[in-house]
UniProtKB/TrEMBL annotation:
The keyword NAD does not apply. InterPro entries: ADH-like_C (IPR013149), ADH_N_2 (IPR041694), ER (IPR020843), GroES-like_sf (IPR011032), MDR_fam (IPR045010), NAD(P)-bd_dom_sf (IPR036291). Pfam families: ADH_N_2, ADH_zinc_N. Signal peptide: none annotated. One of its GO terms (molecular function) is oxidoreductase activity, acting on the CH-CH group of donors, NAD or NADP as acceptor. The keyword Oxidoreductase applies. Coiled coil: none annotated. It comes from the Bacteria. Residues 17-335 form the Enoyl reductase (ER) domain. This is Enoyl reductase (ER) domain-containing protein. Keywords: Oxidoreductase. It comes from Diaphorobacter nitroreducens.
Length: 338
């Protein structure tokens, strides 16, 4: 059986997460039991939710236990199988964690899903045609539920969730405005992802300036906002929201290292009669087939071809993950393991 490099959570962050919170170890993969499958991971997905799991505080999901392999989505290939439904060479997506190989019980529902890489590249099943894509779909379709011609705004627009949101909203005839960090990301959002406009939050780093930029980019006001960041950007959106606007609260990455994110004028939610709804995509498994079908179609037809930032080798994962929390990634952050 092959040797397996793994990254464990060694200790919990005190404030900002650091590389010293993680530990790289090498172990032997155990011999397979009946019903088990050995998967060699090609890519590991790095996602902002992992930062929350590193804490030992109340959340929607259990904390990552210390001394265990970090949680994470993976795509890879079956290299040995003692389960009749899986053959060597099958391409699969699962939650293999921060390691090169995983042993998976093929009988446990939802642990492993075979994927077709004829028209969609394997890595896309961790991004546009995976959890981040479905996240965008749920917030747009089930919470914002836009009509054609309405204006929708998304923060972290160049990222895995934001780029999928843009393609899905354009397909519904919306005016789509992104918010992203820096001129390169903004140019990519409009020129390559096809958004109608993009606001650079680094050049509009306070409430007044962001509200002014939103007024210009959204001349008819804002009907839907997909929140990925939090802080003054949400305050600015509330100032420009139309009556009966909907906010899908997906993430607040600006506060994941413990920074406070006060809301300056919550009365606008009442004044605008707004709907503000948080959601966790894994609690809505019923929409995944429909969402993945649409996202797969967009990806196969080339209408959804988001950018990827790829770190090389498992040892690079902690640094890449910390970079993701600071906006150093450009598109879906992955780690290539083979
Ligand atoms: N609710 C759910 O079920 C669910 C599921 C998946 C993801 N999420 C959330 O969705 C959001 C996007 O996730 P993703 O995987 O697509 O990541 P991503 O957008 O690919 O990467 C994170 C991006 O966040 C932006 N960012 C980080 N710190 C920021 C700050 N202080 N101010 C403004 N922007 C900041 C950066 O983009 P810029 O450089 O452009 O600012 C960075 O590239 C996250 O908040 C994540 O937690 C939620």
């Amino acid at each position: 059986m092959p040797r397996n490099q793994q990254i464990l959570l060694d200790n919990r962050p005190q404030g900002e997460a650091t590389v010293d919170n993680f530990r790289l170890v090498t172990t032997d993969t155990p011999a397979l039991q009946d019903g088990q499958v050995l998967v060699r991971h090609h890519y590991l997905s790095l996602d902002p939710y992992m930062r929350g799991r590193m804490n030992d505080s109340k959340s929607y999901a259990a904390s990552q236990p210390l001394g265990e392999v970090m949680i994470g989505g993976t795509v890879g290939e079956v290299v040995e199988s003692r389960h009749p439904a899986y053959a060597v060479g099958d391409k699969v997506v699962g939650m293999g964690g921060w390691q090169e190989y995983s042993v998976v019980d093929g009988n446990t529902p939802g642990m492993l899903r075979k994927v077709d890489t004829t028209h969609v590249p394997l890595s896309a099943y961790l991004g546009a045609v995976g959890m981040p894509g479905v996240t965008a779909w749920y917030g747009l379709v089930k919470i914002i539920a836009p009509k054609a011609g309405e204006t929708v705004v998304v923060s972290a627009a160049s990222g895995a969730v934001g780029s999928a949101f843009g393609a899905l909203a354009k397909a519904r005839g919306c005016r789509v405005v992104g918010i992203a960090g820096g001129p390169d990301k903004c140019r990519y959002v409009t020129e390559e992802l096809g958004f109608d406009a993009c606001i650079d939050h680094r050049a509009n780093g306070d409430l007044k300036s962001m509200a002014r930029a939103l007024k210009e980019a959204c001349p008819d006001g804002i009907d839907g906002y997909f929140e990925n960041v939090g802080g003054y950007i949400l305050d600015a959106v509330l100032l420009r929201a139309n009556a009966f606007a909907r906010v899908a609260v997906c993430g607040m990455i600006a506060g994941y290292d413990g920074q406070p994110l006060p809301l300056q004028n919550p009365a606008l939610i009442l004044i605008n009669r707004m709907k503000v709804e948080g959601f966790i995509v894994s609690e809505h498994m019923e929409v995944w087939p429909e969402a993945l079908k649409e996202l797969g179609g967009l990806a196969a037809s080339g209408k959804l071809r988001p950018r990827e930032t790829i770190a090389q080798g498992l040892a690079a994962a902690p640094e890449a993950f910390l970079g993701l929390l600071k906006g150093k990634n450009f598109g879906k952050q992955l780690v290539k393991l083979v």
